[in-house]
Amino acid sequence: MRRLVLAVATFALLAGCGYSDTEVPAAVTPEPAKVTPAPPCDDTGDPTRSYAPAGVTNGPTIAEIRERGFLRAGVSADSYLLGSRNPFTGQIEGFDIDMVNAIAAAIFGTAQGHVQLRVISAADRIPLLQSSELDIVARNMTINCSRWKDIAFSAEYFRSGQKVLVAQDSGIRSVADLSGKRVCAPSGTTSLDNIQQIAPDAIPVTAGNHTGCLLKFQNGEADAITGDDTVLAGLAAQDPYAEVLTGEALTDEPYGIGVNEDDVDLVQLINGVLEDMRADGSWQASYKKWLQPSLKAPATQPQPVYGR
After folding, report:
1. From which residue to which does any coiled coil extend (predicted)?
2. Which of 2, 145, 208, 257 is close enough to 43 for a disulfide, judged by CB 3.0 to 4.6 Å?
């Protein structure tokens, strides 16, 4: 009995030190992720309607940001062209980051030294705004009326559209071909809901972000990735065997800067910044630098809709 106890204790000690053999479990097919439908909208107006600029420069929210000394912005670090980390400089850069810097410059006179970027997932966007851990979110966030129930938005600053990325030799040529195929999108987005309206037999797969979806796609765990054309263009640039299906976008995705619903003065300032970027051409310059080379199409800044 003593020998048996000693043997068991020795085995436990070795296991704790990492020397035990690891039994490889049998392969298990994961269950498809469950998609929760978005709540119905009761806003019959245009969801891109925002608060008109009112020349606000020192409202309560703006004063608090100035006193703190920096603007807290939630962004992506893996959405190539929109917000991604430059491997050579270590800096996060892209079209969305240009929006953040313009807002910070309007508050402090310069963005240099006055921006704190926080890398967040798509699912983090609304909760972190609601808890006031962030001042703004500039992370390719679509404006819709159900989200207006939780947060506020700036005027639309870019019009994207949902498309699908597939392997070049997949034989998938349209959304209709996705029936029975595994389609990946980040959790917390509406992309899978939109796909299943057109291809209800598509199998939803989720990941923390689009980079996670790309890994699943390259590992054979997903047959396609869906998301905004801006994001998919960045993924295709990282995978020479992938392509974005051509044709019209499945949806219109109006991007807005997310803000806590109580911070109306900050929304008004942001909308003034967007108006200034239209007037001085800086919006157009940012688009031409970041997005036009991959999207291969010109674009103009969306016209704002006010009256909220």
Report:
1. none
2. 145
